[in-house]
Design a protein that fits this description.
- It is a single chain.
- A hairpin with a 2-residue loop joins strand 2 and strand 3.
- The protein has a 5-stranded mixed beta sheet with strand order 1-2-3-4-5, sandwiched between helices.
- It is globular.
- With 150 residues, the chain is α+β, with helices and mostly antiparallel strands.
- Helix 1 crosses helix 2.
- It has 4 helices and 5 strands; from the N terminus they run E-H-H-E-E-E-H-E-H.
- The chain has one domain: Aminopeptidase, CATH 3.40.630.30.
- The chain starts with 6 loop residues before the first strand and ends in a 14-residue tail after the last helix.
- Helix content is 26%, strand content 23%.
């Protein structure tokens, strides 16, 4: 995997949200996540949660850019819990198709791990090829997930 040195990485947090164009990140994630994504309004709620200074909330938004173009984005939410539930959940990550296999996704996940405390959980579909990256980075799969949707 070739590292792309022309990509710049930025981290936005509740104490440092300046310069983040939320609509740009929402559009990027909506288009790049394809079948693994959610509606724009749900992505917007996730960003708002990550950048909230309210007790029990917070997290970070990490953005990879090549020039002015977004080529990768990650949203990490704090859960406000620990022990029985991981302290953080990696909710969204996407890399532009032109940058896949160049280390952008790995760098974003590593930044998330390096810039937060506590465990990180994520959900990934079994057929998602990114699953192999997470396993290489040390994520394990201990549970099957079931949901009661209402």
């Amino acid at each position: 995997m070739a590292e792309n040195n022309s990509v710049r990485y930025d981290i936005y947090t509740p104490t440092n949200p300046q310069g983040l164009d939320k609509d740009e990140i929402i559009d990027f994630l909506f288009h790049q996540l394809d079948e693994y994504g959610d509606e724009r309004k749900d992505i917007a709620k996730c960003i708002d949660y990550a950048l909230s200074e309210a007790e029990g909330k917070g997290g970070s938004v990490m953005v990879a850019r090549e020039g002015d173009a977004v080529v990768g984005a990650l949203i990490l939410n704090n859960t406000g819990m620990s022990g029985f539930i991981p302290e953080n959940i990696l909710v969204y990550i996407a890399v532009h198709s032109s940058q896949r296999g160049k280390g952008v996704g790995k760098r974003l996940v590593q930044m998330a791990a390096d810039n937060t405390t506590g465990s990180i959980a994520l959900h990934v579909e079994p057929q998602n090829p990114a699953r192999h990256l997470y396993e290489k980075m040390g994520f394990t799969n201990k549970y099957l997930e079931y949901r009661l949707l209402r």
